[in-house]
TrEMBL record:
PROSITE patterns: ADH_SHORT. It comes from the Bacteria. Keywords: Oxidoreductase. Pfam families: adh_short. Residues 7-191 form the Ketoreductase domain. Belongs to the short-chain dehydrogenases/reductases (SDR) family. This is NADP-dependent 3-hydroxy acid dehydrogenase YdfG. GO terms for molecular function: oxidoreductase activity, acting on the CH-OH group of donors, NAD or NADP as acceptor. The keyword Oxidoreductase applies.
Length: 249
């Protein structure tokens, strides 16, 4: 029997990309996986696809920018499976743009999803984990949470914030059995760039930083990193993982 039988992981941003691949990875290990995102059709499709696997996947439509919905997501997981072992705060948006183009609504959205969404996730599960003196909270930061590039002033800012929130929380929880991890991917082939509306940014990314010729990672490559971090023995706390394509500078 796998270590994961009977354990529960909540994954936000599970309707596509890295979240979807991570859900698949954990269900195959026997875990109970709670899929969360806004696109209910995609969540239902994934739940159906995973129904024959060793573990169990269930979904709850959730907007991470709502503190209430995040609380309800945690309650749902506890009602379904009795406990929350892992929260993977993975939902994110990346509408890159130049500051001069003042895409204020997109700045707002990135702050709301990439920072406040993470905080609401923490608020929803941390009291439960403290009560059990056990648990693991992971957040998807990025290589962009380690270095800033033109068009990424706000996005990178949110990913730095997400990473630092994990690090600070980890320090506060050092005396407990609760672990924290930042996962920092490089370029991964997903739908993430669909949210870019700034044409200057699009041409900069294609011509200026050579993304056009890079071989991106697959979401499964990142899911493997998440699994590695979570699957360590209880005394091992993997705080940070950076995974980038070999040919990404
Ligand atoms: P996707 O666009 O495939 O996934 C983003 C996910 O976030 C979707 O499932 C989307 O679901 C969800 N999401 C967005 N807004 C909300 C919201 N308000 N509430 C709930 N869910 C939301 O891209 P990725 O898989 O690439 O992105 C996953 C994470 O990885 C993000 O945090 C991203 O910043 C990070 N990342 C990605 C990299 C890459 O190159 N792809 C590199 C580094 C980091 P829905 O729309 O259904 O709500």
């Amino acid at each position: 029997m796998s270590n994961w039988n009977g354990k529960t992981i909540i994954i936000t941003g599970a309707s596509s990309g890295i979240g979807e691949a991570t859900a698949e990875r954990f269900v195959k290990e026997g875990a109970n996986v709670v899929l969360a995102a806004r696109r209910e059709d995609r969540l239902k499709e994934l739940q159906d696809k995973l129904s024959g696997e060793t573990g169990k996947a269930v979904y709850k439509k959730t907007d991470v920018t709502s503190e209430k919905e995040m609380k309800e997501l945690a309650e749902f997981a506890i009602n379904e499976f009795g406990q929350i072992d892992v929260l993977f705060n993975n939902a994110g948006l990346m509408p890159l743009s130049f500051m001069k183009n003042t895409k204020v609504d997109e700045w707002d959205k990135m702050v709301d999803v990439n920072i406040k969404g993470v905080l609401y996730g923490v608020a929803a599960v941390l009291p439960h984990m403290i009560e059990r003196n056990e648990g693991h909270i992971l957040t998807t930061s990025s290589v962009a949470g380690h270095e800033v590039m033109p068009t990424g002033a706000v996005y990178c800012g949110t990913k730095f914030a997400a990473r630092i929130i994990m690090e600070g929380m980890g320090k506060e929880l050092a005396e407990s059995n609760i672990r924290t991890t930042s996962i920092s991917p490089g370029v991964v082939q997903t739908e993430l760039t669909d949210t870019i509306t700034d044409e200057d940014a699009m041409s900069f990314l294609k011509d200026g930083v050579g993304l056009g010729s890079m071989t991106p990672l697959a979401s499964e490559d990142i899911a493997e990193g998440v699994f590695y971090a979570v699957n360590q023995p209880a005394h091992v706390d993997v705080n940070e993982i950076i995974i980038r394509p070999t040919n990404q500078g």
